[in-house]
Amino acid sequence: EITPTDWLNTAKKIQLPSHGPLPIRRALVIHFTGGASARSSIDAMRQRGVSAHLTIDRDGTIYQSIPFSQIAFHAGASRWEDPKTNIRYIGLNSYSIGIELANAGADPDALAWAKRQPGFSTFTGKHQNGGPIEQWENFPTQQLTSLFSVAKLLVDRYKLDDITGHDCIAPERKNDPGPAFPMLASELIVDS
Questions:
Q1: Could you read off the pLDDT of 52-73 as tens digits, one per residue?
Q2: Which residues pair with residue 89 across a beta bridge?
Q3: Contact 45, 35 (CB under 8 A)
Q4: What's the pTM value of the predicted model, to 2 decimals?
Q5: Which residues are paired to 134 by β-bridges?
Q6: What's the CA angle centered on 158, arms 166 and 148, to 5 degrees?
Q7: In 49-134, which residue ranges form alpha helices assigned H by DSSP?
């Protein structure tokens, strides 16, 4: 459940600075952290001056850092076309809710750390936007279960039009959530 102050009541709160009101919410943007645990990733975001509304750990634990009514700095230079209206939006921080998934992606150093985690597995393949065949960390079932549950809640509550990846709104510079992420499954939430 989402509180009247736009916090998820089941999430652990680790607050980061917000960047003004978010009056228009059009999409949910999925990211991976490219690093270790959710908590260490939130610490890294704090140091870099970036943020996401939610960060979900591999075991499914959800952390919220920004209320859904406030802007988080998760998308950077980005663009998105609403699939229902064909209106193009520039700068998705001002129009979207960002969710980070603790995941190494294809980073070799982060993968070395992640290999020590219970249930670790990988996917070998090429990113949809090009590049070499690489090894990518798979997303654990518990993490995806938490993500899809909260995504459904957010789509229903805020009438979001789309679920997209960082690699879709900034394909020239981002590769997350990457080829191991089941994007089709998340997109079904919007259509249900």
A1: 999 999 999 999 999 999 999 9
A2: 80
A3: no
A4: 0.96
A5: 125
A6: 55
A7: 108-114
